[in-house]
Amino acid sequence: MKPALKFYNDCAQRAQKQGIVLDVFVAALDQIGILEMKTCFEMTGGFYIMTDSFGNPVFKESFKKFFEIDESNELKMGFLATTKLLCSKEFKISGVIGQCAPIKNKDNTQYVSSTEIGMGGTN
Question: Are residues 95 and 61 in the same domain?
């Protein structure tokens, strides 16, 4: 299992650096390797939807909602969003909770706490 975890973690990091979001739609309950792929959709801000079949109402409604458009005929999604937190030198950032990935910025390491909460190394 470790080689698969490393492979998918590497894929997730490469996708995140390129601004690629990985979404997973699954219609099977066994032998799909979702545990190994978990970092792919977590680090890239993707979605994971799993049901027992493509005909399942939960799957159908989730799939439709995923591709909803607004009044301007655009998808109701945000892409490549960046959140920047500016703080004084007395504060250090421990991490972030949610679907995101750290942008390793070597210039701002003085603001990164040694205690990690959620996704650490965020700055």
Answer: no
